[in-house]
Amino acid sequence: MTTLISLEGVARDFDGGRIVALRDVNLAVANAESVAIVGASGSGKTTLIMLMCGIMLPSAGVIRWRGVPVTTLKSWTGLRRTEIGIVFQDFNLFPTLTAVENVEVAMLGTVASSRERRRRAKDGLQTVGLGERQSHLPHELSGGERQRVAIARSLVNDPSLILADEPTGNLDSISGTAIMNLLFDLQRSRDMTLVLVTHDRSHARLCKRQIQIRDGQVFEQAAGRPREVAK
Predict the structure, then answer these.
(1) Residue (of 1, 177, 7, 166) closest to 86 by Cα position
(2) What is the reported pTM?
């Protein structure tokens, strides 16, 4: 399979190097692959996701998108607009915007006209089962419905990669299961790459590959036992 995104010798520190979140990460994720990132709280999972979407830059090493190094925040902004969708634990919806308007936000700055943005936003909500809820504000929606809006927003630009950071963390088990089923159905039907951060081992096992982060280092699960990712 062709590599979509890769990290080579990537490290990330904070506070002038006094806090090391990630060290010497070497990881490649292929097109249409599903990968789970697991690890204890504070192990560096969210930092890894932030690096993979360019919300922050690495302190060392290089991140490549389809083999090409991405080195500036501006370049990453362009990728997030067209190639990368993100689903957060806390939904990150605008409270004063309706469901359809929250989805439209992801298309601002693209060449799509206002009419096209509205059509695509409506189609996105229909895809995630919220066709009848598009005019509702976030406080009028359940937690599961709010996360569906967030998923629709992440998909509306037809990305190659979805990064989902604990997408069921604020949901009950029934809603959480429904959201996971939706994510994997969409990943398979659209041939997207899915990188899932989760503390739930049952959710991690749904992915083709599991990556464990421990003390800022990346290991790959194999035969029930972690091994360091090849460098």
Answers:
(1) 166
(2) 0.89
